[in-house]
Amino acid sequence: MNFGKLFGKKSKSKSTQNFNDNEKFDTNVNTSTQPKEKRSIRESIHSEAILNIYPVDSSNLVTASQDRTLVLYDFVNHRIRRRWIGHEHDVVKVLYGSLVQLVVSASRDRTIRLWNTNSDSPVQTLLGHELVVTAIDFNPENSVLVSGSRDNKVMFWDIKTGQTLKTIMIGRNLVTDVKWSHDGTFIVQTGEDKEVKVFDARSMTQAVSFPKKQYIQTSCDISYDNQYVVSNFILPGYLKYSLFFVNLLMSTSNGFNNSGSEISLWDIRQRKLLTEFYGHRATVNSGHFVDQIASMIISCSNDGRAILWNVQKNSMASELEVDNSTPLTSINVMNTQNFATGGLNGKLSIIQQHNRQLQLIDQI
Q1: What integer pLDDT is reported at residue 224 of this predicted model?
Q2: Burial of 2: CB neighbours in 10 Å, binned 0-12, 13-18, 19+
Q3: How far apart are CA 16 and CA 102, in angstroms?
Q4: The pTM is what?
Q5: Residue 28 phi, psi dihedral angles, 5° rounding
Q6: Closest-CA residue to 247 (of 274, 273, 229)
Q7: Burial level of 229, CB count in 10 A (0-12/13-18/19+)?
Q8: Fewer CB within 10 Å, N- or C-terminus of the chain?
Q9: Residue 337 and residue 356: Cα distance in Å, rounded?
Q10: Would you state the pLDDT for residue 317?
């Protein structure tokens, strides 16, 4: 396989759409959540744990919850813009496709549902997984969806027709997360088999796998320029000389009793671990590159903390106990200054970084 071609660089288009300026978007939504000042403590937008968060634009995000609903929330004006009801079990993952203006949800009820931002009912339901659907992501054109499940399947879907394009079955591959590269050429997947796998997007086949880790790999991310893939681990001193000259992948790790719980950074082409970030005391549930040059990583953990990492110095820049040690299930980047994280108590917290120092600015 030609890895140079597989991991070639190509920019992924980003949407400039903002729902606050979208005339087609229905803002007349019945909601009990009224706008209030920052730092005020308000009633949670979910009655049970928030399991996943995905940014929509500069002021809106989508949340997935154990209460079986997903919510479009305006975190700037503090209002629920829409709540979708329809899943029969926990909503585990959520995704927004800016080019097709669709919200996608994955659930413990084994279904994937596509929702139009202007209607309450799903426009399509994708059936094919036999167990909880744990991972979803779009290709850059938003025309193909990749999904993963505890049924050991990675599936590719045609969004327009709802048909399955390909199903890959890998033994003991209980999928935890998937990410499509920004140039559209490859997909990264983490799983409970403790491996990070890479798939060729064109052939929809597994290309490589990385050396097995000691603990379950819980999430992954890819840098904007495809130089990095995140997996919650890094080798001290290595990045000082080669941070901007290798193709990297990042993944996060399960852990307990101060064992594991790391963030790994991998060289994609050489398939080797570069370094590890340690600082969390329990399972790291989510991690993301913060900016386009991958100078920072944000992560959250069952230890109740969000941590901002300085990649160049391979060190912790700032840590924040978000809500009295309540386990944090998901974190995502709204922009380089603001992050959103969800907790097992159903609260959504907005965190801001200034000069690489984290502070809690709002909690819902």
Answers
A1: 73
A2: exposed
A3: 15
A4: 0.86
A5: -85, 70
A6: 229
A7: buried
A8: N
A9: 9
A10: 98
Q: Using DSSP bridges, classify how beta strands 60-65 and 69-74 pair: parallel, antiparallel or unpaired.
A: antiparallel
338, β-bridge pairs: 352
> What integer pLDDT is reported at residue 138 of this predicted model?
99
Alpha carbons 25 and 103: distance in angstroms, whole number? 14
What the block records as the tokens of 67 is 């209460």
Judge contact between 249 and 188, C-beta under 8 A: yes
pLDDT value, residue 36:
39
Q: Could you tell me the two tokens for 350?
A: 């907005």
d(CA 114, CA 83): 14
Predicted confidence (pLDDT) at residue 300 exceeds the cutoff of 90: yes
Question: What share of the chain has pLDDT > 70, as a percent?
Answer: 82
Residue 292 neighbours by CB distance under 10 Å: 12
Amino acid (one-letter) located at 335? N
pLDDT at 268: 79
Looking only at the bridges linking them, the beta strands covering 328-333 and 338-343 are antiparallel
Q: Does domain 39-363 have CATH number 2.130.10.10?
A: yes
Strand partners, 296: 310
Q: What is the mean pLDDT of the chain?
A: 86
Q: What are residue 156's phi and psi, to 5 degrees?
A: -115, 135
pLDDT at 27 over 60: no
Q: Which two tokens stand for residue 204?
A: 């929809």
What type of residue sits at position 347?
Answer: K
User: Greatest CA separation found in the chain?
Assistant: 55
Q: Please give the pLDDT value at position 44.
A: 76
Torsion sign, CA atoms 190, 268, 95, 65 = positive
Q: Which of 229, 191, 227, 237 is nearest to 212 (CA)?
A: 191
Between CA 56 and CA 364 the distance in angstroms is 18
Determine if residue 294 is left, alpha or beta; phi over 0 gives left, psi from -120 to 50 gives alpha, anything else beta. left
Q: Which helix (H) or strand (E) holds 215?
A: none
| Token code pair at residue 235 | 């080798």
Q: How far apart are CA 250 and CA 162, in angstroms?
A: 30
